[in-house]
Automatic annotation (TrEMBL):
The gene is hpt. It comes from Candidatus Sulfobium mesophilum. InterPro entries: HGPRT, Hxn_phspho_trans, PRTase-like, PRTase_dom. Its EC number is 2.4.2.8. One of its GO terms (cellular component) is cytosol. Transmembrane segments: none annotated. Gene3D superfamilies: 3.40.50.2020. This is Hypoxanthine phosphoribosyltransferase.
Length: 173
């Protein structure tokens, strides 16, 4: 396994998170915001983002997966659901990366069934080349090519999440 040089540096990431937080703060001013982090991958981005949002907010989490060792199974599993009441609240789903869109679309549909006042989606990385299901994304950190990346919460086999930057990952035999 090889983790290459930073594809996105710590400085680039910090600038983008602040930029996103500023826009989100303005968009949600005076609203009843519940920010929902999609675990595990979004935990670093989510933490950085919510600490920079100036609007009062509540936080919650959900855990969903459709990946096994870097490959999408297409079968979305919900391991932990949002515990807060979301009816009549303004929901911001925060995701690490959107590639096929399968998992996020499943989560989005599940949240919409619970009757939020509004639902917007923020993703740190957007990999449109792999999209199989179109999901509306309201806030996008970076659009990236079809490379497998790790770091800043993203993993391969639950490793490399602790890298402070994003790196392209290559499997070696």
């Amino acid at each position: 396994m090889v983790v290459g040089r930073p594809f996105l540096t710590v400085e680039q990431i910090q600038r983008k998170v602040k930029e996103l937080a500023d826009v989100i703060s303005n968009d949600y001013e005076g609203k009843d915001l519940l920010a929902v982090g999609i675990l595990k991958g979004a935990f670093v981005f989510f933490s950085d983002l919510v600490r920079m949002i100036r609007t009062p907010l509540m936080v919650d989490f959900l855990i969903a997966s459709s990946y096994l060792r870097g490959d999408s199974t297409g079968d979305v599993k919900l391991h932990y659901d949002i515990r807060q009441e979301i009816a009549d609240k303004d929901i911001l789903l925060v995701e690490d990366i959107v590639d096929t869109g399968i998992t996020l679309n499943c989560i989005r549909e599940r949240v919409l069934m619970k009757g939020p006042r509004s639902l917007r989606i923020c993703t740190f990385l957007d990999k449109t080349e792999r999209r199989e299901v179109q999901v509306p994304l309201d806030y996008i950190g970076f659009s990236i090519p079809n490379e497998f990346v790790v770091g800043y919460g993203l993993d391969y086999d639950n490793k490399f999440r602790n890298l402070p930057y994003i790196s392209v990952f290559k499997k070696t035999t």
